[in-house]
Amino acid sequence: LAARHYMDGYLDGLKSAIRVSQDFYTAIARHPKVSVSRVQNGTNITRLTLKGTNAAAVRSRLLERHIELPGISPDGVATLLVNETWNRTTGAQLAGAFDQAHG
């Protein structure tokens, strides 16, 4: 019963989250210090590479805005997964936060 309860609306929520992530990836790909690399074959995985910046400082400034950039490597690569938490914001707002975090 618990699984059925959480399945109601799950696909709609995931579709919405995918739209938010696509809007974000399109916007952030224009940033000169960020590159976006989508993992092939329809997965929900994308890698962002922060170039020419202190990745730890960017991550810290994002955390101040309650945006977690998980598992960022020392060379500035973050692996992002799409899930329903993306529905808490818009792609434009998220891209703006990344832009400000690069300060």
What does this structure look like?
This protein has helices spanning 2-7, 10-28, 55-64, 91-101; strands at 34-38, 45-50, 77-81. The chain is of the alpha+beta class and 103 residues long. It has a three-stranded antiparallel β-sheet, with no helix packed on it.
Counted beta strands: 3
Distance between the termini: 48 Å
Mean pLDDT: 88
Per the principal axes of the C-alpha atoms, what is the gross shape? globular
Instruction: Describe the main β-sheet briefly.
Output: 3 strands, antiparallel
Tell me the strand order in the biggest sheet. Answer: 1-2-3
Give descriptors for this structure.
3-stranded antiparallel beta sheet, alpha+beta, single chain, 3 strands, 103 residues
Concise description?
This protein has about 100 residues and is an alpha+beta fold. The protein is built from 4 helices and 3 strands, in the order ααββαβα. The model has no long low-confidence stretch (mean pLDDT about 90).
Which SSEs are present, and which pair or pack?
Blueprint: H1 2-7, H2 10-28, E1 34-38, E2 45-50, H3 55-64, E3 77-81, H4 91-101
Antiparallel strand pairs: 1-2, 2-3
